[in-house]
Amino acid sequence: MFSQSLVRLSEGVGEVFRTKPSLPDTDRLLKFLCTGIFLKIIGRKKNMARPPKAPAYLDEIAVRQWKEKSRQLSGREDLTPADWSNLELYCVNYSIYRKAVEDLATRGFSIVNSQGSESRNPALSAKADAERIMIKMASLLGFDPVSRRRNPPETEEEDELDRLA
After folding, report:
1. From the CB of residue 90, how many other CB atoms can be counted at a distance below 10 Å?
2. Model pTM?
3. CA nearest to 48, candidates 40, 38, 39
4. Contact predicate 86/137, CB 8 Å
């Protein structure tokens, strides 16, 4: 029975044993367990998922943001497939925001329109819309301090509330 459990463990984790484990393989199992890899695998949440590559249509700014934020979410072990579309929205709007800020720095808050009169730079509206969406997505994804406090990461350690129950 112990050997069968080890075979299942090795299939789930990857090839740990090249042959079917037997009693002499317990030394190899002990070495495997001591590396800490086993603890990481057991501690992983079931809803964890590796982020896919950034969508092909994203520009360079959005791709950099995708890589940074997906690493941040993966590091917290808090990324599910349901989050990918929110991350995509965040990255797209971050890029729009950055381009709008650049346009405002270049052309200013007012521009000369096609009729020759001054009007409000459309980048102001684009920036405001992108900010609004970024703030919402950042909150949903836990990028801001308030949402991180509201939804702290789960730990295996027992806290005061666990001891009261």
Report:
1. 25
2. 0.61
3. 40
4. yes
Alpha-carbon gap, residue 72 to 37, rounded angstroms:
21
Q: Which two tokens stand for residue 32?
A: 């495997």
For the segment 49-96, what is each residue's pLDDT rounded down to a tens digit? 567 889 999 999 999 999 999 888 888 776 777 888 999 999 999 999
76: helix, coil or strand?
A: coil
What is the reported pLDDT for 5? 45
Within 10 angstroms of residue 91's Cβ, the number of other Cβ atoms is 26
Cα radius of gyration rounded to whole Å, the chain = 25
What is the distance of C-alpha 152 from the center of its chain? 15
Alpha helices by DSSP H, listed for the chain, are 2-13, 26-34, 37-43, 60-75, 83-107, 122-141, 145-150, 160-164
> How far is C-alpha 91 from the geometric centre of its chain's CA atoms?
12
Identify whether the C-beta of residue 139 lies closer than 8 Å to the C-beta of residue 151: no
**Cα angle: 135, vertex 137, 139; to 5 degrees:** 70
**Residues 6+ away with beta carbon under 8 Å from 26:** none
DSSP 142: T
